[in-house]
């Protein structure tokens, strides 16, 4: 059977949230018969610069959270920083266009900086196929918005400040369908698999693939409520070693998060990103505690206002909030997404209706292009809107 075409999905390995959404979308599109190319935007940079960008962003979250929060707020208030970011990334447009195969029929992004490259290419006529964005956060930061992007896919309750010419479609979260509520037998098997106690209240403490935030304090304060924390440290080996010294249930990177969520009674998180969406899809109550600055606090506020999660604002509030959500867990349904579009279906329809991208238009190499990589490092230090989970 002839395949319906090729789709390119552009993400970035800044945390894991952008990549996990891209992976889920790619899997759904392949199931519909499409060829799918996955591209890491940061691969436009030489290896050392790629690593420097990731280290700078991670260091900002770890060591200067107040500075990160300030950047987030400043870049939300004025369009000038986003225009500056777009200009700084301009030298990388040609390299981005060369990475798009001629038979591509749509490009999808799950990382905001990609929009600042692909949107102008689309608007300027150098990219003929639709550019569609799946926004990984509930707060649609201005760095997601770029002229030329055809459609922005956001989940229910996402907040976008009014902006002319922005086409927004509500979609179901790009969460694996392996997440789902299960019966008590499933919970017992999951606890046994991960070596967890068969009885008692277990609170899954998550802090993204980098293990950022006030994780140690959160774990201690969850313990003080009487719940037993199960900590996922992602790829932060130092954090895992430090927390394991007290004999707690501490895990590193977990490949089967659906099974782990079946084992616990509540999820305690600090970013409101993809892990939070996964927990809600699994029907597990979610408490936001000590949220990350910037996108973490913004997401937490939206989630709390919508009633999807509870936000415990202090150690004194944590115990009562945990008790309330755990007590209500059996009657807490997963959010109903049946009325929302599947992002893969939206992308598939756009791709089927589009002509192939064709080859890049030949032209003179910009004199600025050799310095584009270095400029992009500076740009990457600007706030991109999170997506760590």
Automatic annotation (TrEMBL):
Signal peptide: none annotated. Keywords: Glycosyltransferase, Transferase. It comes from the Bacteria. Residues 18-155 form the Diacylglycerol glucosyltransferase N-terminal domain. Transmembrane segments: none annotated. InterPro entries: Diacylglyc_glucosyltr_N, Glycosyltransf_28_UgtP. It holds the Pfam family Glyco_trans_1_4. Its EC number is 2.4.-.-. The keyword rRNA-binding does not apply. One of its GO terms (molecular function) is glycosyltransferase activity. The keyword Cytoplasm does not apply. Belongs to the glycosyltransferase 28 family. This is Glycosyltransferase. It comes from Micromonospora maritima.
